[in-house]
Design brief:
Elements (H helix, E strand, L loop, with lengths): L1 H24 L14 H20 L2 E6 H14 L4 E8 L5 E7 L6 E10 L6 E9 L8 H12 L8 E7 L2 E6 L4
Antiparallel strand pairs: 1-7, 2-3, 3-4, 4-5, 6-7
Length: about 180
């Protein structure tokens, strides 16, 4: 019984500290102040566009635009299928050439708002996500980048199954993918 009570006290103290820490840290903001939301229509459109892109890329040069709503829909589905403790995920394509992913971590008893910045590296032939910063409130972004890259490598095996993708450009509110026959 004493061990159970110690556990309950420990969990309660941890939740209070996490809540106080989250309140202290605040909420970081992504690169843009736009309303972005997952929708079934955006998910369906991305799937259709991706299939057409793959068919075209198998024959020759191909290009495809991705909206923030489409990317957000895909990210939300991917996280939900894996039971990730992240909610309210939103993807932003930034004018300086990177992407931000904003989400709320819900596994510590109190919500912790996180923004991760990064890009998609296609230089090695196999696309790889590269996280450059992870911000939690006012903490510097480089603190969590190494841990986030390790977690992504563990979840994806280090690369993404996106054969034929040759370039990704992020502009304000849009990503443009180009591709061609896999080499």
């Amino acid at each position: 019984m004493r061990t159970v009570m110690q556990g309950i006290v420990g969990i309660t103290v941890g939740a209070v500290l996490a809540g106080a820490g989250a309140a202290f840290l605040g909420a970081p903001t992504p690169c843009a102040d736009r309303k972005v939301a997952p929708t079934p229509a955006a998910a369906a459109q991305l799937k259709s566009n991706w299939n057409a892109f793959l068919q075209q890329a198998a024959r020759g040069p191909a290009a495809m635009a991705v909206t923030e709503d489409q990317a957000t829909s895909q990210a939300a589905d991917w996280l939900q299928q894996r039971g990730a403790p992240l909610t309210d995920v939103r993807i932003y394509f930034c004018s300086d050439g990177h992407a931000d992913a904003a989400a709320t971590l819900t596994s510590f008893g109190a919500p912790v708002h996180i923004v991760a910045g990064g890009t998609l590296d296609v230089s090695g032939g196999q696309p790889t996500v590269r996280i450059t910063s992870v911000r939690m409130g006012s903490l510097p972004g480089v603190i969590g980048a190494a841990a986030a890259n390790s977690a992504i490598t563990a979840a994806t095996g280090g690369t993404l199954p996106l054969k034929g993708l040759t370039d990704v450009r992020f502009t304000d509110g849009r990503a443009t993918l180009t591709g061609g026959p896999a080499k």
